[in-house]
Write a structure and sequence with these properties.
The complex is a heterodimer of chains A (about 160) and B (about 850).
Chain A (H helix, E strand, L loop, with lengths): L1 H26 L21 E3 L14 H5 L5 E7 L11 E9 L8 H5 L5 E3 L14 E2 L1 H5 L12
Antiparallel strand pairs in A: 1-4, 2-3, 3-5
Chain B lengths: L3 E6 L2 E6 L4 H7 L23 E6 L2 E6 L10 E3 L3 H16 L15 H9 L17 E2 L4 E3 L9 H8 L6 E4 L6 E4 L12 H5 L5 E3 L12 E6 L8 E7 L2 E7 L12 H5 L14 E3 L6 E3 L2 H19 L4 E5 L5 H15 L4 E3 L16 H5 L2 E5 L3 H4 L1 H14 L2 E6 L10 E5 L5 H17 L3 H9 L11 H10 L3 E5 L6 H17 L6 E3 L6 H6 L6 E2 L3 E2 L3 H11 L11 H8 L2 E5 L7 H8 L3 E6 L4 H5 L2 E4 L9 E3 L4 E4 L13 H14 L19 H11 L11 H11 L8 H4 L4 E2 L28 E5 L9 H4 L3 H4 L6 E4 L1 H6 L7 E6 L2 E9 L7 E3 L8 H4 L9 E4 L1
Parallel strand pairs in B: 1-5, 16-17, 16-25, 18-19, 18-21, 19-20, 21-22, 25-26, 26-27, 31-35, 32-34
Antiparallel strand pairs in B: 1-2, 3-4, 3-5, 6-7, 7-10, 8-9, 11-12, 12-13, 14-15, 14-27, 23-24, 28-29, 29-30, 31-36, 32-35, 33-34, 33-36
Classes of the chains: A alpha+beta (about 160), B alpha/beta (about 850).
Chain lengths: ~160, ~850
């Protein structure tokens, strides 16, 4: 009676498949009305870079250029300078005078985050990166310090 | 003791000279022993304990420092045992107890021996959880160097360098135990002229370069081996570039030239290379408004060709001339004189301090000869201020080998504290003094004894020079087996300079050391510029312009022969001898009197880095490249031709000197009839194709050959044909160490060596009058200093005049007061300083101070100038 058991098994499979279809029918639409509605991203999602500050307002970045060294595509350019002890930009002696990220080169690998000894550079959740001219892809330090949604992610690991 | 010793290191048999340190023997065997305090150029100390290795003997093994133990026959050393490894780990742990882990912001990070050795030999994990000890960070030990006492691992390298090489113990260890730290002595910052070398040898980031601080990370630098462009020593450097900017300069080892040290000018004064005020486009004087405006290269060069050409056609070629700087490369100097000699048709080429100075053409026999000499005679030359690396070499031979110094200088220079003799001499009296010394040496050789000395002492009693040291000086000279005679431009200018050099040559010849006479110029490439014949009376390779054979040879090479009559000197050209002038790289008009003279010119072209006072007067300004942006060769004071390759991209539209001259010559040749001095100017169209032009040449007589130099190397190739002793100086052959041309290749015509016009000795000045001494100062206000980084610029002294304290007391003058100094040439107001190194009866105003006070008073002309101080 091998044939009978095969028939039942096949019927079972069809029912199971139809179940998935029926559940999807009942679940309602998944479409997000994107520009109007925000898209939730996973916590570890990597998009546009941000430079973080300490709570007292000092920049975290010390201009060590390790992110630049770690960057596989040469997207980061840093020029460091010496802090004026009376008006420090960052704690310690050194800060980044110039910090630029070229988004056309960036592959969002996150190596800069990993390399950063002070958790200054992080990849945030802002993925809306379209601009009207190429110069817009060059993020300046000013832009990096002022992300649309400030300080969203600090990755635990 | 045998000369060679054989020992075993890790089962490898090594044979090294006796006296070698075990650490060096291991290096010879290819075995790496980690070190911090040990340095091949410094005496062994054994401070850091990093090099502990096992010495296996008959009574078992013991640990000892490989950097202090010298090899012995049959010695057995083990560097890789478990015990050695454990000791290394523990030692690194101890060093790192208080070493801050701020590697990310440390300039040494990436080229740090402590990082590297911790990675290679370190424990990997730290046992220490206690907080680290805090000391001074960002602690200035001079205007140029910062000390981070936390990072210091107390290896003493900086202390030892300053003591052993500079003989200036300005750093020391203070406190005890864990509180021990390096510090300066109170109120005495480090001021050694080569202090920057301690940054290079620091094994951690404790000493950092304030000018280059935080401007680079070592791994991202493009490193170009080059040579220094500040003084004629030609120290070997490395240019470190990042994103088209020169980030820092460090020393490069060349044992024949600078060992591995460079002076602070070479290290810290480099901002002129990428200064924002650099000229980026050619400028031409607007015909309507009379101001300079930006122009294209074509427009500027056309203007030069048109205006210079018009002057040549109207008044003859001898009404235009060229003055270059002794800093420019050999290629630029060669093409500059070729432009005037072959194309314009005049010998009016010179450089500032060129034909006025009686320079000995072969320079120093070799810098390494300093280390082999037992007596160094310095006449009117102060190495500490003019060429600090020579001073380092001289101090070394004095301290280590007991050489003596005989110093003949109007000022008691820094080196006068060393054994030997110092003969103060009034400016202008050098020839008389040297003549007497030569006669005394001759006499002591012939008639030894009291007689000769008595005769000498009796002569010229009012001369202030000799004094009681005189017999000692003769004995010193007579006893010298391998002396060196070095003189500088200050005593070789003008007629008096001729007499001084002749007297000096007589003295050297009297001692049988005629080939040990050396002239050391002021410009970085003065030797090379002279070799290239950038002098009104000398062709490339030191042939006089009257030498028909050489003119013919050059005529074959250039297409046209240079004229036979000597041209005008720099002073004559400025003084109204020419109507059109081409100034390459020299700021002549910094002196107001010269500026006044240049204003009278019909046409002035200036090729420079900046809009200098001279460039502001120019009708056309051509933006040139600095030494770091263009390929070029430079010849140092020991005739070593060295490569200075391009290290960074040229700023703006600026071009290399040789490239500008080539472009100019091409335009000159293309202009109608210009390539031709045969008499009949043919009306040829400028766009004649090559083959046609050749045909025309064949018909109408000699014409200049086209200037076909795609690269600086091709210019060097032609130099090899024009200057016989440069024949082997190919770019590839020069390598990174350079090549010396042999002085024997140059038959020096000792035309007027023996005779000297007797000069009336300078008499002691009248009361209230002083003789002007204008010897150079290290931190002066030269053009490169003016465009240096802020930290360096603040080292430029305010203009001052220094007098002997005794003179100050007699004249009842107060230090610090403003005094008016008047000479027949001009008058300046300066701050008064007391300085015991200045001899009574003289005032010392260093050359090239801000506002050029010494030059305004007439200094640097070779004539004694008496100055009234009011």
């Amino acid at each position: 009676m091998a044939n009978v058991s095969t028939v039942f098994r096949e019927i079972g499979a069809v029912v199971q498949a139809m179940g998935v279809t029926l559940r999807a029918l009942l679940a309602g639409p998944l479409t997000v009305q994107y520009p109007e509605q925000p898209i939730a991203v996973y916590p570890r999602f990597r998009a546009r870079h941000e430079l973080r500050r300490y709570e007292n307002g000092l920049e975290r970045c010390i201009g060590c250029m390790l992110c630049e060294a770690a960057c596989p595509t040469g997207a980061i350019h840093v020029e460091a300078a010496e802090n004026d002890p009376a008006h420090p930009v960052s704690p310690g002696e050194r800060y980044a005078k110039v910090y630029e990220v070229n988004l056309m080169r960036c592959v969002f690998c996150g190596d800069c985050e990993t390399a950063c000894p002070v958790e200054a550079i992080v990849l945030g959740h802002d993925f809306e990166l379209a601009v009207y001219d190429r110069d817009g892809f060059l993020l300046t330090k000013e832009q990096l310090l002022n992300p649309k949604v400030p300080n969203v992610v600090v990755r635990a690991e | 003791m045998p000369d060679q010793v054989t020992l075993t290191i890790d089962d490898v048999k090594v044979t090294v000279p006796a006296g070698t340190l075990v650490v060096d023997a291991a290096k010879a065997a290819g075995i790496d022993i980690p070190v911090f305090c040990s340095h091949p150029k410094l005496d062994p100390l054994g401070a850091c304990r990093m090099c502990l290795v096992e010495f296996v003997g008959s009574r078992g093994s013991r640990l000892d420092t490989a950097c202090t133990v010298r090899v012995a026959e049959g010695m057995a050393v083990r560097t890789n045992t478990e015990q050695v490894k454990a000791v290394r780990e523990a030692n690194l742990g101890f060093i790192l107890i208080n070493h801050p882990l701020d590697c990310p912001i440390c300039d040494k990070g990436g080229e740090c021996p402590l990082q590297d050795q911790t990675m290679a030999y370190g424990p990997g994990v730290s046992q220490f959880v206690e907080p680290k000890r805090h000391k001074n960070k960002r602690y200035p030990i001079s205007d140029l160097i910062l000390l981070d006492q936390e990072r210091c691992i107390l290896c003493w390298r900086c202390i030892r360098y300053l003591e052993e090489w500079e003989d200036k113990p300005q750093l020391g260890l203070f406190e005890r135990g864990g509180e021990t730290m390096i510090d300066t002595f109170p109120g005495q910052p480090v001021d050694a002229k080569t202090s920057g070398s301690i940054i290079d040898i620091c094994p951690v980031g404790a000493l950092t370069n304030r000018v280059a601080r935080f401007r680079y990370r070592p791994w991202e630098l493009k490193k170009t081996p080059s040579v220094c462009n500040h003084c004629p020593v030609g120290c070997n450097l490395r240019l470190d570039e990042r994103v088209h900017a020169l980030r820092r300069i460090v020393a490069r080892e060349n044992m024949a030239v600078n060992d591995e040290w460079i002076c602070d000018k070479g290290r810290f004064v480099h901002q002129f290379v990428d200064h924002p005020e650099r000229l980026k486009k050619p400028l031409v004087r607007d015909a309507q408004r009379g101001t300079l405006r930006e122009a294209t290269w074509d427009e500027a060069l056309d203007r030069v060709v048109e205006k210079l050409g018009a002057l040549v056609e109207a008044n003859g070629p001898n009404t235009v001339g060229g003055i270059a700087s002794p800093r420019v490369s050999n290629e630029a100097a060669y093409l500059f004189q070729k432009f005037f000699r072959a194309l314009v048709g005049t010998n009016n080429v010179d450089f500032a301090g060129g034909s006025a100075v009686r320079a000995w053409p072969t320079g120093l026999s070799a810098i390494t000869d300093i280390a082999r000499s037992d007596l160094i005679v310095l006449v009117g030359f102060d190495p500490s201020e003019a060429a600090p690396l020579l001073a380092v070499h001289i101090k070394r031979v004095v301290l280590r080998k007991g050489a003596k110094l005989l110093i003949i200088h109007p000022r008691r220079i820094e080196l006068a504290k060393y054994p030997g003799a110092y003969l103060p001499v009034l400016p202008g009296n050098e020839a008389a003094l040297l003549g007497e010394l030569a006669a005394a040496v001759q006499a002591s050789k012939g008639v030894r004894g009291q007689e000769a000395r008595g005769k000498q002492a009796a002569r010229n009693p009012q001369s202030p020079g000799p004094g009681p040291q005189y017999p000692d000086v003769v004995a010193l000279l007579a006893a010298a087996k391998s002396p060196l005679f070095i003189y500088g431009p200050d005593v070789a200018r003008g007629e008096r300079g001729r007499a001084t050099v002749a007297a000096l040559l007589n003295l050297a010849t009297a001692l049988g050391q005629g080939d040990k006479l050396a002239y050391i110029g002021a410009g970085a490439n003065e030797q090379g510029v002279r070799d290239m014949g950038l002098l009104p009376d000398t062709l490339p390779g030191y042939a006089p312009v009257s030498d028909a054979a050489v003119r013919e040879r050059l005529g074959k090479l250039w297409g046209l022969q240079p004229p036979a009559e000597a041209g005008q000197t720099c002073a004559r050209m400025i003084g109204g001898g020419v109507k059109g002038l081409f100034v390459m790289g020299d700021n002549l008009a910094a002196l107001p009197a010269v500026a006044e003279a240049l204003r009278k010119l019909d046409f002035l072209v200036v090729q420079d880095l900046f809009l200098t006072e001279t460039a502001q007067l120019a009708d056309v300004v051509l933006p040139a490249c600095s030494f770091a942006e263009a390929d070029g060769t430079y010849t140092n004071l020991e005739r070593r031709v060295q490569r200075g390759p391009q290290g960074i991209r040229a700023v703006g539209e600026s071009k290399a000197d040789w490239a500008i001259l080539t472009a100019l010559a091409e335009k000159w040749l293309a202009a109608e009839g210009r390539g031709d001095r045969s008499g009949v100017a043919p009306a040829a169209a400028p766009e004649l194709p090559d083959w046609k032009r050749k045909k025309r040449k064949a018909k109408t007589g000699p014409a200049a050959k086209p200037w076909n130099y795609p690269t600086a190397q091709s210019v060097l190739e032609e130099i090899g044909k024009a200057v016989p002793f440069y024949a082997t100086m190919r770019w590839e052959a020069l390598g990174e160490g350079g090549l010396q041309w042999s002085a024997r290749d140059l038959r020096v015509g000792v035309r007027d060596s023996g005779l000297s016009n007797t000069q009336s000795p300078t008499s002691n000045p009248r009361p209230g009058e002083f003789l002007l001494v204008s010897s150079p100062l290290f931190w002066d206000a030269s053009l490169f200093m003016q465009y240096a980084a802020d930290q360096v610029r603040q080292l430029i002294p305010a203009p001052f005049v220094a007098l002997n304290p005794a003179d100050l007391a007699t004249a009842k003058l107060a230090e610090g007061s403003q005094m008016t100094l008047t000479s027949p040439h001009g008058s300046v107001i300066l701050t008064l300083k007391a300085d015991a190194s200045v001899q009574p009866g003289t005032v010392w105003i260093p050359a090239t101070l801000p506002g050029l006070p010494a030059e305004t008073l007439g200094g640097g002309r070779g004539e004694p100038i008496s100055v009234v101080v009011r």
